[in-house]
Amino acid sequence: MIILGIESSCDETGLAVFDTDFTGNGLRANVLFSQIDLHIPYGGVVPELASRDHVRRLIPLTKEVLEQADLSVSELDAVAYTAGPGLSGALLSGAMMARSLAWALGCPALGVHHMEAHLLAPLLEDDQPEFPFVCLLVSGGHTLLVRVDGVGEYQLLGESIDDAAGEAFDKTAKMLGLPYPGGPELSKLAQSGDASAIKLPRPMMDRPGLDFSFSGLKTAAITRLRGHQASGEDSAHFKEDLAASFEAAVVDTLLGKCARALKQENLNNLVISGGVSANTRLRSQADELCAKLNGRAYYPRLAFCTDNGAMIALAGAMRLKQGEQSGLDVMVRPRWPLEELGKP
Ligand code: KG4
Ligand code: ZN
């Protein structure tokens, strides 16, 4: 089966071709257009601009990805697209493209859950995790801890009760005067700071359970920044130290809950996926945690941590293998809890 994957849930137009018979990891081609430059002047994603740009890019990128895969459009067996969660206009652009193409070709169109695709993304690598495992999904919109027993077998163990980890990174970065998207910029700044210089809380670690909260931590960091600015002091490394201390607090909290989840589920393999899984400190400390538990930590390659079409094509292929069908309607779900996957 040859599946075209289309991602358009936010500010990235990603297309990929996944071939179940292709040697290696099945990925035949992958292209991406990032809208970052378009949104930088606004300090964040402008939904209407995002939708319009997806519309502009979808057809040229479809041609490009087919060329890269050395395929003609008639050779596609299915088209998978992100049906949610995400920005409704952005989702609709990709969904319309996918549904129309599938209709013209007489093949199925599969609406994929964006977070399930992030969760499965490490299966695009040569070194793949085996089921069952605990998965930490950390993106701009979600922070979820999930027990994964197989494709479609997900049990939500915990989630953020307020800001997602990526959102907290982005908002704190903005206050530090860093450009959008702030997560990678803050992480870069943190590299020249001292992570123990500024004391910040590790939220929800003092209570039982697997939920997260990042809103208070973000506010604590911003309060320290304002206090420093008001004091008139000019310590050379304050921003670097604050970035490093904030990053350390987020990573400690995320991994503290992962350790708890692994213990609770009696597992020692951890998958971390979603945009924040590109974070170097998170990856190195997760490796250390899993090594202590005689297990392993798995991640997608850096290019597939953030949004991409490859993970959508892969998730579509797996759903198709499980016999999932598609209707002729164009269905998007801007809000779509992972627990409701598979339910009407
Ligand atoms: O998965 P993703 O591309 O989009 C969503 O589904 O939300 O994740 C984007 C998020 C943003 O909040 C971005 O700042 C964050 O991932 N991010 C990072 C890093 N790279 C991306 N956060 C911390 N450190 C990074 N290196
Ligand atoms: Zn994402």
What does this structure look like?
- With 344 residues, the protein is of the alpha/beta class.
- It folds into two domains: 2-120 and 304-340, 2-Layer Sandwich (Nucleotidyltransferase, domain 5), CATH 3.30.420.40; 129-299, Nucleotidyltransferase, domain 5 (2-Layer Sandwich), CATH 3.30.420.40.
- The protein contains ten helices and ten strands.
- The protein has helices at residues 36-39, 47-69, 88-105, 114-120, 165-175, 182-190, 215-231, 238-265, 280-292, 309-321; strands spanning 2-7, 12-19, 27-34, 78-84, 109-113, 133-138, 143-150, 153-159, 269-273, 296-298.
- The strands form two sheets. The chain has a five-stranded mixed beta sheet, sandwiched between helices.
- A hairpin with a 7-residue loop joins β2 and β3 (27-34).
- α5 runs parallel beside α7 (215-231) and α8 runs parallel beside α9 (280-292).
- It is globular and about 65 Å long.
- The two termini are 26 Å apart.
- The model has no long low-confidence stretch (mean pLDDT 95).
- It binds 5'-O-[(R)-(carboxyoxy)(hydroxy)phosphoryl]adenosine and zinc ion.
- Zinc ion binds at residues 114, 118, 139, 274-275, 307.
Q: How many domain units?
A: 2
What is the CATH T-level topology of the largest domain? Nucleotidyltransferase, domain 5
Question: How are strands sequenced across the largest beta sheet?
Answer: 3-2-1-4-5
What distance lies between the first and last C-alpha atoms, to the nearest angstrom?
26 Å
CATH superfamily of the largest domain: ATPase, nucleotide binding domain
- CATH top level class name of the largest domain: Alpha Beta
